[in-house]
Design a protein that fits this description.
By secondary structure, the protein is mainly α. 64% of the residues lie in helices and 1% in strands. Strands 1-2 form a two-stranded parallel sheet. Helix 3 runs antiparallel to helix 10 and helix 9 crosses helix 12. The radius of gyration is 27 Å and the shape is globular. The N and C termini lie far apart (95 Å).
Length: 427
């Protein structure tokens, strides 16, 4: 078509297009979105993130295996006298706290509630990602990404009660009904209160995203009528079963904790313990924030599933490693520290959300800012519960079981290798 250099009248150009549909039997129904998801998922960056997480896991696993194997080998080969603490080598100093390592932590009720809620969050997240990988969450039904976690949260209250009461019994607690009540109400209540505040902000500004009052008032009904009884059922089962067996007796007087070096102080341990798990999820966190606040479609859930598994392993490894160093420094307060060490990942998550706000977004208006940081606080709190639980479970198993196993192999408090006036441990 030729167009003159000068036109006396306006020229209207009409554009048109046509669509033709072709039936294809080679594409399965559940994978019909794959070609779009792959193009929008930045697969190379996702693979880089996954490999980064895998390298962190391998590095920590190698360090942990090296330290533990060397320690256990030395335990079986060396005779140690507990009557002269000054003569014990530095890599055996953890033996001096064997009578204090099983002391019940302060605020054991609160810690057990956090552990139960963290187990609840972890199971819900794992099953949601599993269903997403199986193709049940697709761009054709975006609401399912919010529906599945809510349904799973309501129906999976039993594991939360079981884990909470099991740890509470291990800490020497007796009020399992109060423990179950707090498990079912405390952490979900905090999240519900924060969401209610954000919804009120949306009501005040007449936002179309605000949930109507009657709809919002019905949300606690399944939580109170379904989840709470399931939590009590799990708490009953967890309190009836046998708790972790203590392999050593607890002394009457708590041992004085010596002055700690800079590396083993609590703040330094928390900073170190949170940075490595955060490093394994930082790329996935970026894509998650982009999908929430920049309206980018996110449907490649295989990568978050892999990173989820690697995050759990990373939290466990870094927590066990730092726990070992704290015991070497004769600091037996490992229970709360194990939870806070990996749980401190939430601090870095919130800090990254702040960084993302100032560098990637252009949000204006007080309501929008409140919504953003409110959602970021909820996200950080959920991360705190989940990552804290991920590190505490395996560390508890290691502290409670490993000493007795090493002793039976001829280790530190065995009958022949340790010469001490302390009575032998209960078997």
């Amino acid at each position: 078509m030729g167009v003159k250099d000068r036109l006396d009248d306006n020229l209207d150009i009409v554009y048109s297009y046509s669509i033709s549909f072709e039936e294809s039997n080679s594409t399965k129904w559940l994978s019909r979105w794959d070609y779009i998801s792959y193009e929008l998922s930045n697969a190379k960056i996702q693979w880089f993130s996954t490999m980064n997480s895998f390298i962190i896991v391998v590095f920590l696993g190698g360090m942990l295996a090296l330290v533990l194997l060397r320690t256990l080998r030395r335990c079986g080969a060396q005779v140690i006298s507990m009557d002269d603490p000054e003569s014990i080598p530095k890599h055996f100093r953890w033996m001096l706290v064997h009578e204090d390592v099983f002391r019940a932590p302060r605020c054991g009720m609160l810690l057990s509630v956090f552990l139960g809620s963290g187990a609840h969050v972890g199971i819900v997240a794992f099953l949601t990602l599993l269903l997403a990988c199986l193709g049940h969450i697709t761009p054709a039904n975006p609401g399912s990404l919010a529906t599945y976690p809510m349904v799973l949260f309501v129906c999976l209250g039993t594991p939360a009660g079981y884990v909470s009461s099991h740890f509470y019994k291990m800490f020497g607690g007796k009020r399992w009904i109060e423990n179950a009540l707090l498990t079912s109400l405390l952490c979900p209540g905090i999240v519900f209160a924060l969401c209610s505040i954000l919804n009120v902000v949306l009501w005040i500004h007449d936002s179309s995203g605000a949930i109507p009052f009657m709809t919002w008032a019905t949300f606690p009904i399944p939580w109170l009528l379904v989840t709470t009884p399931l939590v009590f059922l799990g708490a009953h089962l967890g309190f009836k079963c046998c708790a972790f067996e203590q392999t050593m007796r607890t002394g009457g007087t708590p041992r004085e904790i010596p002055k700690q070096r800079c590396v083993t102080r609590p703040v330094i341990g928390l900073l170190i313990g949170g940075i490595l798990p955060f490093g394994s999820i930082i790329i996935q966190l970026f894509f998650t924030l982009r999908s929430i606040w920049s309206h980018q479609m996110y449907s490649t859930f295989e990568f978050p599933m892999l990173v989820f598994v690697l995050l759990v392993i990373t939290c466990a490894e870094i927590t066990i490693m730092l726990c070992y160093f704290h015991l070497l420094a004769e600091d037996y307060r490992w229970v709360w520290r194990s939870f806070l060490t990996s749980g401190f990942t939430a601090f870095y998550v919130f800090a990254y959300c702040v960084h993302y706000y100032f560098n990637k977004l252009a949000i204006t208006g007080a309501a929008s800012i409140v919504i953003y940081f409110g959602v970021s606080v909820i996200m950080a709190f959920v991360f705190f519960l989940f990552t804290g639980k991920a590190g505490t479970r395996l560390e508890a198993a290691g502290v409670l079981q490993e000493p007795s196993a090493s002793c039976r192999a001829g280790g530190s408090w065995g009958r022949s290798s340790v010469q001490s006036s302390t009575p032998p441990p209960r078997q």
